[in-house]
Structures are given as C-alpha cells and as structure tokens.
Amino acid sequence: MSLFIDLVGNNTLTLEFQLLDSPLTKLWVERMNSRGEYPLDHPDRFYGFNSHEEEIKRAEFYIRSCINIINDYQPLIERPFTNYQDQDCLNYLHNIFERFHGQLEQQDTEFWLNAPHDVRQALANLNLAVHRCESISRGVRPRFVCTWYGMPKTLHIPVEHMLKYGTMSTFFGTVYLNYCEIGKTLEDLTKDRDTYIGDNMFKPHDFYSADFVVKFWDDSTEEIKSRIDRMQEYYNQQQEFFQSRGYTKFDDPRLLPLRFPVAQLIETMPREQLLEEIKQRQHVNRVYIQ
C-alpha cells in the first residue's frame, strides 16, 4: 500500500509514498481511513519552498491579517506586531491564541462562544501564523502539513512505539505524525524561551491523529546533538517545573525530540527538480491510500 498526495498548480503532481512496515504506521492508517467526514484543513500549508523574502512577506501579511480581524471585533491584542524575528512578541501572540481559543474539544471561553465565524477562524489561524514566522527566523526548511478540521485527537501514541519507532533524525521525503495538540513541547519551549506560557500549556508529543507532515531535508549529526544539548540545558534549568508534572528524567520519550515516521517518498526525479515542482504547486488537492 502507498500514500498518494495530489498537488495542484497549472497541472497536477502526484507524490507517492511507500508505507513503512510498523505498528505505528498501522495506527496512523486506521486514523487516515476514519477521516472521511472531516475536511482537509489549510491545504496550502507549505513552508520553505519560496525565497527567503517571499516567505517573510507571506508570513507577516498572514499574521497582520489575523490580528486585524480579531481586534476589529474586540481589541484583545494590545501589543503591536513588529516583525517575524521578534520572538517575545510571537510568544505573546501565541499566548493570546491559547487563552482565548481554548483546548481542542474544550473551546468554552466566552470570547470563542460569542465570536462570529471569521473571528474564530482568525484566532485559530493566529497559531499557524506565529509558527510560520518562527520557522523563518530559524531557517525555514521545505515541508508541508496536512490536517483534518474537527477530527478528534483522543488517541495516545503508545510509549513502547515511541521508544522503538521514534527517531531524532529528519530524512528527505519522509512522512511523520504531526504534533496535533494546543501547547508546546519541551523542544518548542527550548527554542522559544517562552515566558508567557501557562501551567497547562506544556504539552509533550502524546496524541496522534491522521495529521501528518512531509519534510524535505536531512538532519546532520551535529544538528541533532546541538538540539539535544540545548534541550538538556533547558530541562536542567526548569527541572522543578518538569518534575512536578511527572517528567523526572530528561530521557523520558515524551520529552525527547522524537519524530514518528510512517511513510517514505518514492523518488522519481532529482531532489532539486522535485522541490521546484512542488514550489509551483503549493496546494494539496487530494490525499488517499491505496
């Protein structure tokens, strides 16, 4: 069996991915087969295929649009947006999203319940807009994300699968489970140095759904080591915070920067050509397994 993804621009490019032989893949396929009633959410969620300048322009336009829609309805956001590199401002905006959007399946804030649809959508999109800015400031790399609107996120990744099938490496053309919670992992907190995050907004990668991300680069050994060293340092600095929540050791698989692969691209052209072809078709039209 394979995963197929149709990308559209002037014409269609179909990417085929061989499913990996693992229990983790079987769990994900079951979710994929259960997604029929849920629409593909944000089919243009592509990162890193344009020039650096184009990525900045796109991200800053997106985040300002979200802020304007929200504040035109109710002035929640008091702090002006500066630019994509202002991490403290991005942390502030992410906190606004967390506070007024609420947790998945627990969206019961007064603002959310009373806001019209376009304002709700802008608040939800604010989260994506923040992460788009962050990805640029960290050296955005080519990837795209597929999520399904409204699909419940209630199933846990078994810890034994994390240990056996999780990897700290990123490989070109690999499909990974996407982080599908509202909050930040230890890796995110380490990157952001977030001082706005609430007590209940630390969320390790625990749940899974049909959501996935396709990445188009290879990590180096040096990158992986640097990532782990920075996370270890942050964990040690915030050890009381994590231990009070039951994470008594840094090597807890829920804390480690694990990626969970489920499929691998069948490469039919040189990689540089493929990236250019995807650049011309940054819209997912159809996703299916057969």
Written description of the protein model:
The protein is an alpha+beta fold and 290 residues long. It is 41% helix and 17% strand. It has helices spanning 23-32, 52-73, 87-101, 110-114, 117-137, 159-165, 186-192, 221-237, 239-243, 271-279; strands spanning 2-8, 12-19, 40-41, 46-47, 143-148, 155-156, 174-177, 207-208, 212-215, 261-265, 284-289. A hairpin with a 3-residue loop joins β1 (2-8) and β2 (12-19). α3 packs antiparallel against α5 (117-137) and α7 (186-192) crosses α8 (221-237). The protein starts with a strand and ends with a strand.
Overall 3D shape: globular
Which ranges are low-confidence, i.e. pLDDT below 50, for 5 or more consecutive residues?
A: none
Chain-averaged pLDDT: 92
CATH class of the largest domain: Mainly Beta
Strand-pairing-aware structural class = alpha+beta
Terminal CA distance reads: 5 Å
Helical content stands at 40-55%
Q: How many extended strands? A: 11
Beta-strand portion reads: 15-25%
Along the chain, the helix and strand elements come as EEHEEHHHHEEHEHEEHHEHE
How many helical elements?
10
Task: Identify the CATH architecture of the largest domain.
Answer: Beta Barrel
How big is the Rg? 19 Å
How many structural domains can be distinguished in the coordinates?
2
Major sheet size, sense and barrel closure? 9 strands, antiparallel
User: The CATH topology of the largest domain, please?
Assistant: Cyclophilin
